[in-house]
Amino acid sequence: MTERFLLRRALETDNVALSQLSQQTILETYVEDFSIPYRKHDIESYFRSSKSPEWFASKIVDPLQATWVVEEKISDELVAFAIAGPCKLSHSDVCSGEDGDLQFLYVRRDRRSHGLGQQLMNTALLWLEERFKGRPIWLGVWSGNLKAQKFYMHYGFSQVGDYYFNVGEWKLHTFIMRREHHSP
User: Fold this and answer.
1) Which has fewest Cβ within 10 Å: 5, 24, 96, 99?
2) So which residues are the signal peptide here (predicted)?
3) Residue 119 in contact with residue 7, Cβ under 8 Å?
């Protein structure tokens, strides 16, 4: 990493900070950057069910998943995170339990362009390739986030399907991307 940042596996005690970081990065990305008009109670409900400290605690201790964080050394603040594990995307080619999935990768807006996303991506891909040997790796990315799609294509992912992800009444058109197994 760099002298300024530390990439590490998440600890159980990171769950509250991860919840806060997740909520911040989702609001920055979808509400502020892309002006998605989520209704307040819809996004709050989503955060309670899918981005709460308890939700993150369950991800961190799950032996089938891995959660990484990037911590800014000066402030001890978490500024980025990634979660990987078994693929649960709804696609006819997914072999549940056998294929890997990059479930989340978010970097706080004011810490982008420091290579943190690349470091998290490289770390997650190494873990996924080791854990799901010879199998494809999957992910979902919002159809309107062209920068993220380009980032994932750089790593060999291509679009193979789509679905709608609901946040309350709002439906996000999401692309399913897959990276085929790469032989050494």
Assistant:
1) 96
2) none
3) yes
List of the chain residues with pLDDT < 50? 184
Of 80, 91, 96, nearest to 7 (Cα)? 80
**pTM to 2 decimal places:** 0.93
Give me the DSSP letters along 129-168.
HHHTTTS-EEEEEETT-HHHHHHHHHTT-EEEEEEEEEET
> Vertex 166, ends 118 and 27: CA angle to 5°?
50
CATH topology of domain 5-179: Aminopeptidase (3.40.630)
Sign of CA dihedral 49, 166, 69, 5: negative
Estimate the share of the chain in helix, then strand, then coil, as percent rounded to the nearest 5: 40, 30, 30
